[in-house]
Amino acid sequence: MSNNKFEVKGLDLHYGEFQALKNIDMNIETNKVTSFIGPSGCGKSTFLRTLNRMNDLIENVKISGSVNLDGENIYGNIDVIELRKRVGMVFQKPNPFPMSIYENIAYGPKIHGIKKKRELDEIVENSLKKAALFDEVKDRLNKNALGLSGGQQQRLCIARALSVEPEVLLMDEPTSALDPIATLKIEELMEKLKKKYSIVIVTHSMQQAARISDCTAFFLMGEMIEFNDTATIFTKTVDKRTEDYITGRFG
C-alpha cells in the first residue's frame, strides 16, 4: 500500500501560449507537511491549485499529465465539488465570508446537506477547536467574522476548510499577511493538523519551510528542480540552482 496521497506524473500546464508548469513528477505523502519554495512566478502556486482543480476557473488553461489522489486521476471523470471537499484550500489573505463566525464554519456542511442545528453546533465547535480558535471566539460566535484580527481570521479560514472533513489541506502562503506571533500560531497548528491531514503549503519563507515541513520542493521557471525531505534540501542540495536560492544568491 503506497503512502502517497497524490501522485503527479508528467504534468504540463499552459495559460494560452505560456507554459506555466513543465513536466512535473511528484509524490506527496499522507500525513506530512510538504512545502513548495521558489521565487515569485516560478509556478508553485499554480501547481498547488492543480491539486484541487482551482485552475479550472481560469480561461485558456490547458492541462496534460495526471494527478492521482489515492490512485484516482482527478482530471478524469470526477465530481469537482466532491474533490474540493476532500482537498480544502486556505488562501494567502484571510477571506472570511461577511457573516458570523458560526455561519462561516457552518456554510460548507450546510451545502453538503447537514441541516440539524445540533450537528452543525458540534461541527462548528470541533472545527474551531482543531484550528485552535474556539477558546478565543466561543462567546462571540454570532458576531461578524470580519471583526477578528488577521491571525484569527486566517485560523477561521482553516476551521472553515476543516468543517467539511477534508483529507488534504492546501495552503497558499497562509502566513504572509500575518505578524510573527500569528504566524507562529498557524505553524504550531500545522504541526498538530498533519496527524490527521496531509498538508501542502506554498511559502516565500525558507525559514518557515525549514521549520514546519517534512518534504520540500524547489520550483524555478515552471520546473520542479529538486524535491526531497526538508533536511536534505537545506543541507545537501543536489542542484546548484537550489543551493543558490536557499543561500540567498537570488530570488
How do you describe this structure in short?
By secondary structure, the chain is α/β, with parallel strands linked by helices. The protein has helices at 44-50, 80-86, 101-111, 117-130, 134-137, 150-162, 180-193, 206-212, 230-235, 240-246, and strands at residues 4-15, 18-29, 33-37, 61-69, 72-73, 87-90, 168-172, 198-202, 215-220, 223-229. The strands form two sheets. Strands 6-7-8-3-9-10 form a six-stranded mixed β-sheet, with helices on both faces. A four-stranded antiparallel β-sheet has the order 2-1-4-5, with helices on one face.
Describe the protein.
This protein has ten helices and ten strands. The radius of gyration is 18 Å and the shape is globular. The longest helix is centred in the middle third of the chain and has 14 residues, at 117-130. The chain starts with a strand and ends in a 5-residue tail after the last helix. The chain has one domain (4-246): P-loop containing nucleotide triphosphate hydrolases (Rossmann fold, 3-Layer(aba) Sandwich), CATH 3.40.50. The chain has helices spanning 44-50, 80-86, 101-111, 117-130, 134-137, 150-162, 180-193, 206-212, 230-235, 240-246; strands at residues 4-15, 18-29, 33-37, 61-69, 72-73, 87-90, 168-172, 198-202, 215-220, 223-229. The model has no long low-confidence stretch (mean pLDDT 95). By secondary structure, the protein is an alpha/beta fold. Helix 3 (101-111) packs parallel to helix 6 and helix 4 packs across helix 6.
